[in-house]
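[worker-b] picked up task from shared queue
[worker-b] task type: protein-ligand structure
[worker-b] ligand name resolved to zinc ion; SMILES cross-checked against name lookup, match
[worker-b] sequence length check passed
[worker-b] input payload:
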Amino acid sequence: MDYIFVLVCVFAAIYGLCIGSFLNVVIYRLPLSMSLAKPSSHCPKCKHPIAWYDNIPVLSYLLLGGKCRNCGVHIPFRYTAVEIANGIMWLLCALIFWQQSIVTAVSSAFACSVLLSIFFIDLENMIIPDVLNLFLAICGVISIFGNDGVIWYSRLIGGAVGLAFFGLFKLGSLIILKKDGLGGGDVLLMGAAGLLLGWERLLLAVLFASVVGSVILIIIAYKTKDKDKPFPFAPFLCAGVTISLLFGNTIINWYTNLILGI
Ligand SMILES: [Zn+2]
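[worker-b] inference finished, payload out:
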């Protein structure tokens, strides 16, 4: 039993939960161009500052029954869900990558957090802040120095393919459909994702996003009357990129073995 590795995994999960708590601040304040540092966390209704002991990830939510201590207003479960999701993703990054490369584990963990933020910001505001795409690209550049079985030029090709393919898609929908099918933020997101994943895993991410995205949009189209209502695409991309980042190598190996029969 490798006790240090167990300890690393426990810490990754705990740090992941705490960073998840900060991501809630990012998701709420970044689209509003508010400072991330000040003011300190407060209740969205009564503006009462939240004490540190009421701001412990997951635990405080359970102890307070999902309510503000001061005014009793219901705090949406989404805040806790973001913390748990980030904690699980950081734990997975430690489990999957730590023993082969610490750099890969850390850059992947931060990339997952950026993707989680983009997921909710685009879902709720239909925008992707440039700074988050920049952070994702930086995670991609740092991961070049790690070891995840992806060759450095695969990342460059991935970045270029992501930008070019989605850039052309945006241009095409502007010219042919006379409407903006894709935001500029989505194009930059795919460029950064290509840099992070390498072109092979980028294809997997786009495939996942397209299939899951199509199914969900067909369901939404059946249920709503307003067919021209714009929809956010980045949440699907973020989910695809995250799955491809964590499990892409395993899935691609499994698939090539299946095809080649090795
Ligand atoms: Zn309150």
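[worker-b] attaching auto-annotations
[worker-b] The radius of gyration is 20 Å.
[worker-b] releasing lock
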